Amino acid sequence: MEVIIKNSYQEISSLAAGYLLNTVKNKENAVLGLPTGSTPLEMYKIVVNEYKKNNISFKNIKTFNLDEYIGLNKTDKNSYYFFMEKNLFSHIDINWANINIPNGMTSSIESECLNYENKIKKAGFIDILFLGIGKNGHIGFNEPAEYFEPHTHEVKLHQNTININSRFFNKIEDVPKKAITMGIKTILSAKKIVLIAAGSSKAEAISKTISGKIDPRLPASILQLHNNITILLDNEAAENIK
Ligand code: F6R
Predict the structure, then answer these.
(1) Which interval of the chain is the signal sequence (predicted)?
(2) What is the reported pLDDT for 55?
(3) Number of domains in the chain
């Protein structure tokens, strides 16, 4: 694991944006794996600014998002589809047919999950996957559990994830209780992973991710098995690293 610690959220965001932009510049049909949440917001802002200033094209880029809530329409301002459209896709020249986000409104979750796995495989797997991390060590929506779930699947969100994510909703009852997420094997099949974490609320999960036992109760610990991962931390997220 390569661990890079910088003084500020701004600095790690521009490093992360650099990884994304370099991938796009070096491989015009690259496959990107993308997260939502608060952490990647600055990275997306920088990517959009650089896109506007420079001659970078996303026309042949394919994207796969990590996860989506079950039961929210694309047009719902809390859906991850809406988030991606607002923060990235509507600002760049990506071909909308190349955007992949699990469909949380599907009538068959099982076939949606199977399809999603097949699409990733058919695309030649993800060249670079960006991850945030939950306070409880979740990656995507792979919550702490008794075992690692390998493939894209339906997940029941933990109450603490619902509580944390309720900041975006009018009331906590509106937060969906379930989601579709890439599985652990799906995540590990990415050729390169960049995990970004900022703030002291992530410090404990980060230290366990880097030097704890590999344990499905701290899902991110499995990332120790990936041989091309970079972890970008601000000082606060790094404060528990021994
Ligand atoms: C979002 C995702 C989640 C978040 C995590 C951290 O697509 O997969 O694992 O990365 O919950 O969220 P923030 O960045 O809001 O702290």
Answers:
(1) none
(2) 84
(3) 1
